[in-house]
Amino acid sequence: SQAEVDAGLKRELALATINRASLWCFDMWGGVFKTPETMRLISKGKKIWDRFAHAPAKTRAEVALVVDPESTRYINDRNPLVAQIHQGTRNKLNRLGAPFEVFSFNDLPQTDLRQYRLFVFPALFELTPRKMDVLKNHVFKDKRSALFACAPGISQGRDLDKARVEDLVGVPFGTPGVSTTQRPDWTAIYVPKYDDISPQMLRRLATDAGVTLYCDEPTPVFANDRLVAVHVANGGLKSVTLPTDCRQVKELFTDRVSPVSNRRFSYDFTTPDTALFELIP
């Protein structure tokens, strides 16, 4: 329907604008861009992108999904778990109700990580002494939380030993459910099965870690320090919580202005819908 096309296009335009990325529209099945309404939306989205995509901005993400290149070699690409590991975990984080960023493990020592409260490691199978030093120096500190799945640290680069999993997460390899172990300055969380990772579980862990959840329901949120986008399947009047206060927000596709009080504002979404808000000091 036109409403579904509008919501999907606004979602992708908002994601590209907030991440200051390029975007091109491909008429994959034919007829997607056939209506005047769609073309007016593309025109509006292009004007928004032109205004914001090249302006300095800082991500508001407090959750990091970390992919380790070396560990990916431990799973054959025909393994049935492959789709659940990185792509599946990312898709669940897409419904966190808060923004997140994706890092390579090798990015961690070179990145300012002070704003991140929850780190998600879906496949850190290889944990060498060098990698452990990176974690100790850049992640395991400041009361943060780190979620590990499957068999974290089972290899040090030479052989496999299940005892290493317990050394890292505090419970034996394969312990069912969600296990939480308090370390001196961080929290270790262990989930052996990818099926047990859900958007609801991630929302709970994020809240416990001090992450700001923008929405009261599991829905995609993208944000930097100037813009916030929220995508919903079902509309209605919804409350949005911001990590910092401002005077008001302006929805850029409709030009509707909403006041902000104590970091919260309300917006009446259609079904489905994507709203892109400019934060106005």
Briefly summarize what is shown.
With 281 residues, the protein is an alpha/beta fold. The chain has helices spanning 2-18, 36-52, 82-93, 129-138, 163-169, 199-208, and strands spanning 63-67, 100-104, 118-121, 144-149, 179-182, 186-191, 221-223, 227-232, 236-241, 248-251, 257-259, 264-269, 273-280.
Can you walk through the features of this model?
- The structure is a single chain.
- α1 packs parallel to α2.
- The protein has 281 residues and is α/β, with parallel strands linked by helices.
- The strands form 3 sheets. It has a 6-stranded mixed sheet with strand order 2-1-3-4-6-5, covered by helices on one side. Strands 7-8-13-10-11 form a 5-stranded antiparallel sheet.
- The protein is built from 6 helices and 13 strands.
- The mean pLDDT is 96.
Q: Keywords for this structure?
A:
281 residues, alpha/beta, six-stranded mixed β-sheet, five-stranded antiparallel β-sheet, 13 strands, 26% helix, globular
Tally of DSSP β-strands: 13
SS-derived structural category: alpha/beta
Residue-averaged pLDDT:
96
Order of helices and strands: HHEHEEHEHEEHEEEEEEE
Strand order of the largest sheet: 2-1-3-4-6-5
Task: List unreliable stretches of 5+ residues.
Answer: none
The 3D shape can be described as globular
The amount of beta strand, in percent, is: 15-25%
Count of DSSP-assigned helices: 6
How far the N terminus sits from the C terminus, by CA atoms, comes to 36 Å
Please give the radius of gyration in angstroms.
20 Å
